[in-house]
Amino acid sequence: MPVRVALVLSRLRLPAMIAFFGLLLSDHWLRVLPGGLLGWLIVIGVLLLLVRAGTVRRDPVAVRPPVTGRWLVLNSPASRVPSHGIQAYGQTYAIDLVYDPAEGARPTHAWWPLARRPDEFPAFGQPVYAPADAIVARVHDRERDHLSRTSPLGILYLFTVELFRELFGPNRVVGNHVILKLGDGAYAMLAHLRRHSIRVQAGQAVTAGEQLAECGNSGNSTEPHLHFQLMDRASVAIAAGIPFQLVDGDGEHVEVPKNGRRLVTTASDDLAGARS
Questions:
Q1: How far is CA 265 from CA 77, 216, 247, in A?
Q2: What is the dotted CATH code of the domain comprising 56-275?
Q3: Tally of CB atoms within 10 A around 103
Q4: How confident is the model at residue 106 (pLDDT cuts 50, 70, 90)?
Q5: Cα–Cα distance for residue pair 212/110, rounded to 1 Å
Q6: Would you call 10 exposed, middle or buried from its count of C-beta atoms within 10 A (0-12, 13-18, 19+)?
Q7: 187: Cβ–Cβ under 8 A, 6 or more apart, which residues?
Q8: Structure pTM?
Q9: Secondary structure in 3-state letters for the chain
Q10: pLDDT, position 165
Q11: Residue ranges of the domains in the chain?
Q12: How far apart are CA 135 and CA 140, in angstroms?
């Protein structure tokens, strides 16, 4: 599965880049202190931020599914924590949802074509909904929807070229996104949204089930899908992940599906169930 493979590879991407550029700085550019000490202090500081991103422990927050229909669950916190193999960017309990309306409806991993247009995937353009009553904290809607990375060479491209997205900050990594303030110190992020599809703005109040945007393929994404997570602050760069639980329209708790299972929701945004 390309989404899963790419995110496994990405576990070492950010720490490796930090170490590489730290060495570069300490050896060549920042010899203002003996032995390039300033460069190493920068490296240590950033690494400490990454370690801090896994320190929050609290009870799960109840939220409704941010999508409707039949979605394949990948990188689920029900299968492992941290779900994406890394604590950074508040991803500890994140989940990826890939729209899979029927068997064979979605292009799969293959050697050819090397890449596909995002509109060839059924997830592209699917509505994305608010998981709870909230206030919009942040909106970013400037990243393009790029071609898929659903071939081995496409994944190699993702790993070798798009890793430089890290150098330009979290917006380039998570792509177009909406961050919601849920209250009680919890924030929700819905990421990889379709460019220019976001319907809300910062400071706006939204209700559970209200459409926020459309699913896209922006940022560090192998194919159109929705990345959903809860975290302890609006700044993705230093956020720590918060666990969540899914509830239906009546507030009844339903288990978060494990990797490879499907989340099925009704048109009214009530959770119908999860199945293999």
A1: 19, 19, 11
A2: 2.70.70.10
A3: 6
A4: confident
A5: 32
A6: buried
A7: 137, 179, 180, 181, 230, 231, 232, 233, 234, 239
A8: 0.78
A9: CHHHHHHHHHHHHHHHHHHHHHHHHHHHHCCCCHHHHHHHHHHHHHHHHHHHCCCCCCCCEEECCCCCEEEEEECCCCCCCCCCCCCHHHCCCCEEEEECCCCCCCCCCCCCCCCCCHHHCCCCCCEEECCCCEEEEEEECCCCCCCCCCCHHHHHHHHHCHHHHHHHCHHHHHCEEEEEEEECCEEEEEEEECCCCCCCCCCCEECCCCEEEEECCCCCCCCCCEEEEEECCCCHHHCCEECEEEECCCCCEECCCCCCCEEEECCCCCEEEEEC
A10: 66
A11: 11-51, 56-275
A12: 15
Q: Over 50: is that where the pLDDT of 37 sits?
A: yes
pLDDT in tens, 219-272: 888 899 999 999 999 999 889 999 999 998 777 788 889 998 999 886 544 443
Q: 72 is written with which tokens?
A: 């394949």
Q: What is the pLDDT of residues 165-223, one digit of tens each?
A: 666 778 888 999 999 999 999 999 999 999 999 999 999 999 999 999 999 999 888 89
Name every residue whose Cβ is closer than 8 Å to that of residue 54 and which is 6 or more positions away in sequence: 82, 87, 92, 240, 241
Structure-block tokens of residue 180: 């919601």
CB-based contact 151:114 (threshold 8 Å) = yes
The residue with greater pLDDT, 175 or 16, is 175
Count, residues in the chain: 276
Output the six-digit token pair for 234.
């609006």
Give me the mean pLDDT over the 13-29 stretch: 50
Pairing of the two strands 244-247 and 61-63? parallel
Which of 60, 84, 72, 83 is closest to 109 using CA atoms?
72
